């Protein structure tokens, strides 16, 4: 069984949770795939955007990934969204520069074009979406866009750059996803892991 984990700040929290349920591993080496303390379970550390692809194809059995990334999947989903881990809580928000010019067809800069399109479609508003990969806040400041749709945690970065948060589109957190075929073939093993994670999360919430 292969479990894929996200690089970056969430890795430590997920690693601590796995250790609580008896699945520990050493991530200080340059190894891409690592054995764990449980025979038959390996882990790999990937970029968040790649995790659903590996789970969707059945290369990985389980993975941890943010809801913001899951929202952007346009392929048929061959996985179950099993648990809201509660890690990495933030929000996907609409924001604009304070000196924004109104236009009939606003331009929106974002890393999340699928979410942005769905949001504006729900408001029956016609917009032009520009996908960016860098610091999204710069787009309205330099006049590339009227709005941005981006993740917001404290809102300090927006304020420091003269942007205002206009509306929360969705609350975001880390989710556990499980490949559908793996869930059938390794059902008892996966269910034990999921139940152990639930118990550990419940214990964390009490402390």
Key terms for this structure?
alpha/beta; D-Maltodextrin-Binding Protein, domain 2; five-stranded mixed beta sheet; 207 residues; six-stranded mixed beta sheet
Helix content: 25-40%
The CATH homology group name of the largest domain? Periplasmic binding protein-like II
Write the element-wise H/E pattern from the N-terminal end onward.
EHEEHEHEEEHEHEHEEHH
Do you know the CATH architecture of the largest domain?
3-Layer(aba) Sandwich
- Biggest sheet, strands in spatial order? 2-3-1-4-11-5
* Mean pLDDT rating: 92
Q: What is the CATH first-level class name of the largest domain?
A: Alpha Beta
Strand content: 25-35%
Number of domains: 2
The biggest beta sheet is recorded as: 6 strands, mixed
Query: Which structural class fits the helix and strand makeup?
Result: alpha/beta
**How far is the N terminus from the C terminus?**
31 Å
Q: Could you say which overall geometry the principal axes of the C-alpha atoms support?
A: elongated
Number of helical segments? Answer: 8
Stretches where pLDDT falls below 50 for ≥5 residues?
A: none
Radius of gyration: 19 Å
What is the count of β-strands? 11
- In CATH, the topology of the largest domain is named D-Maltodextrin-Binding Protein, domain 2
């Amino acid at each position: 069984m292969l479990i894929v984990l996200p690089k970056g700040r969430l890795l430590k929290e997920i690693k601590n949770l796995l250790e609580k349920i008896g699945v520990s591993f050493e991530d200080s080496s340059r190894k891409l795939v690592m054995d764990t303390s449980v025979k038959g379970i390996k882990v790999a550390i990937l970029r968040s955007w790649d995790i659903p692809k590996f789970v969707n194809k059945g290369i990985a059995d389980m993975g941890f990934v943010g809801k913001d990334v899951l929202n952007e999947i346009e392929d048929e989903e061959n996985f179950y969204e099993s648990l809201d881990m509660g890690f990495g809580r933030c929000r996907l928000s609409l924001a604009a520069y304070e000196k924004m010019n109104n236009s009939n067809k606003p331009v929106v800069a974002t890393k999340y074009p699928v979410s942005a399109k769905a949001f504006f479609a729900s408001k029956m508003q016609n917009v032009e979406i520009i996908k960016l990969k860098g610091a999204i806040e710069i787009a309205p400041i330099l006049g590339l866009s009227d709005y941005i749709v981006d993740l917001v945690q404290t809102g300090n970065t927006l304020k420091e750059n003269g942007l205002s948060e206009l509306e929360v589109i969705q609350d975001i957190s880390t989710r556990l996803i499980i490949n559908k075929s793996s869930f059938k073939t390794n059902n008892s093993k996966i269910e034990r892991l999921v139940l152990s994670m639930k118990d550990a999360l419940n214990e964390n919430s009490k402390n």
